Amino acid sequence: MRILLCTLNAKYIHVNPAIRLLYALNHEKHSGLAWKEFTIKESPDEIAQTCSSFDIVAFSCYIWNITQTLEVCKSIKLKNPNIKTLLGGPEVSYDVEDLIKNENVDYIISGEGEIPFAEFLKSFPNLQGIPGLAFKKNGILNYLPNTTQFELKNYKDIMSYQFDEVESLADRVLYIETSRGCPYKCEFCLASLDNKVRYLPDQHIKSTLLYLMKHGRTIKFLDRTFNIKKDFTLDIFDFILKYRRPENIFQFEITADILHPDIIKYINDYVPECVFRFEIGIQTVNQKANLEVKRKQNFEKTSSIIKQLQHKVEMHLDLIVGLPYDTMSEIKFSFEEVFKHFAGELQLGFLKFLKGTPMRDKEQHGFVFDPNPPYTLIESKYLSKEELHKIVCLENALEIYWNRKRTLNLLRYVGLTNNSFDFLMGLGIYFSQKKLFHAYTMNDVYEIALDFIKLNYPSDPILIQLLAIDRALHFKSRPGQTFHNEISDSLKKSQIALLPQTNVKSRYLCYALDLDIRQLSENKIVPGKFISTIRYNGVEKPELFNQEINREVLT
User: Fold this and answer.
1) What is the pLDDT of residue 15?
2) CA Rg, the chain, in Å?
């Protein structure tokens, strides 16, 4: 019997830990077991063709791939009705009775997959009585709920990435699991359904981590709250700093307002800059909304921790649009408070009504959501469809201009003037009228922003000055179009003469600014007369120099 463990990843760079772990646990007992990853962009027919040489095809399912996975199951059955399909993963664990009715699905495993999958392999085709396994027999559902938990100590000698081609790991995001469960009960999150936190064996964690550091670059920890245990957190940090390679980057999901002072001190004392990334789910600053979804958060503490660490750790902050009691004004307040941290990335997500979560039962809030994955909010008592559309435009502008680091100086200035929400929303709406959000050129990015500023903020010349600086800094070679007039040739020549000399032949741009751009990077708006000079060598990123001058020099 040949069995394929597989999944459809969102992108090639992602990997799926689940199928690797199941393969590592079972391949020695079942010689016909294999594993393979696809992506959601691949043709269902082509994936089905690859699967056609197997007797059973088992899919790992999530909200981002369930639609495509069911299409592949359909294609498999059209090619060969005798091939059996098995679904597992979080997206199928809470809707077993409906999904098993699908004529292209033969088996479903709900909950943790280690025990049911091993029993499935051992017992096939006599599958009666396996907890967590659902199947149809003579049109009747056979299903025993999965009440068992896998003993994580069994992973002690398992290192699942050993079956990958080593060369393929360097350019992918590699995931590692050190614990399961979450101590919090946020009602929009599947992790809240398992409040018992269990840790994998130390030997497994460190052997896997060592392997990933040696052969990969970006390593992301899957723990929902990595910093629950101070001593564990510090031990892993120590291990990383001892064995990491210079190119390694590590991403952790943390709860900032419970971050222990010893961890803060350790990071400030020992961790090099930009080696760690912290993903912090703020979601909303509105405490009424937090309480309604059983979410605990002290935003003042969270904000303080971010400020203490952001010079060392790259911050990825998350907000959710659509929570109960979050009206447009509340969302605006949350956004502007969080944006003022100027994190490396700010993700603005939209509330999703995941199967199994208590959010689906909160009918009193008038939630209307898409019945198809990813079950996104359509409207509620607090947000109309029109308001949600405007926020979608804002989210697209945030991604294009801030997260992709195309107008950092401009948006820092806008954020410091407490106008980030309205500015980005207006820019996003204007952009949508000119171009599709997924089809634009780099010139479109800056020209649309220039026209938007001229139309809506004609009285603030600093906006166009900073847009011109951001555009100039984005390219390695001096752009032809400048958006902002340069200073006179004679003054430009004298400014260039003041710069540190270089043996490389360079080109220059010199702009007069009405604020100190160096102080802006320190979150201060200092007005005055300054000349910013940008030097290009055509190979490396351009250099920015800034000098304060007398007003008379420019006249």
Assistant:
1) 97
2) 27
The closest of 378, 376, 349, 381 to 362, measured between CA atoms, is 381
Q: Is the pTM of this model over 0.85?
A: yes
Q: What is the reported pLDDT for 549?
A: 83
pLDDT at 349: 96
Tell me the torsion sign for CA atoms 129, 130, 133, 136.
negative
H-only helix segments in 52-201: 66-79, 96-99, 114-123
Q: Which position has the token pair 């043996």?
A: 503
Q: How far is CA 357 from the centre of its chain?
A: 21
Phi-psi region for residue 342, left (φ > 0), alpha (ψ -120 to 50) or beta? Answer: left
SS in 3 state form for 334-379?
A: HHHHHHCCCCCEEEEEECECCCCCHHHHCHHHCCEECCCCCCEEEE
3-state SS, 518-536, equals HHHCCCCCCEEEEEEEEEE
DSSP string, 273-339: TTSEEEEEEEE-S-HHHHHHTT----HHHHHHHHHHHTTTSEEEEEEEE--TT--HHHHHHHHHHHH
DSSP, residue by residue, 216-283: -SEEEE--SSTTSSHHHHHHHHHHHHHH--TT-EEEEEE-GGG--HHHHHHHHHHPPTTSEEEEEEEE
Asked whether the CA dihedral 224, 230, 232, 233 is positive or negative, the reply is positive
DSSP, res 190: G
For the chain, list residues with pLDDT below 50: none
Burial letters 409-428, b for 16+ CB under 10 A, else e: bbbbbbbbeeebbebbbbbb
Q: Rounded to whole angstroms, how far apart are CA atoms 233 and 226?
A: 7
Contact (Cβ atoms closer than 8 angstroms) between residue 137 and residue 172: no
Q: What is the pLDDT of residues 290-299, one digit of tens each?
A: 999 999 999 9
HSE of 65, CA atoms in CB hemisphere, 13 A: 27
Question: Three-class SS string for 154-186?
Answer: HHCCCCHHHHCCHHHHCCCEEEECCEECCCCCC
pLDDT tens for residues 400-416? 999 999 999 999 999 99
Phi-psi region of 353 (alpha: psi -120 to 50; beta: other; left: phi over 0): beta
Q: Residue 475 and residue 278: Cα distance in Å, rounded? A: 28
CB proximity list for 412: less than 8 A, separation 6 or greater: 342, 520, 521, 523
Question: How many alpha carbons lie under 13 Å from residue 338 in its C-beta half-sphere?
Answer: 28
Q: Which two tokens stand for residue 7?
A: 């999944």
- Quote the pLDDT of residue 256: 96
CB of 134 closer than 8 Å to CB of 143:
yes
pLDDT value of residue 554: 55
CB 519 within 8 A of CB 412: no
Distance in angstroms (rounded) separating the CA atoms of residues 28 and 527: 70
- Amino acid 552: pLDDT: 58
Enter the tokens of residue 537. 């060598």
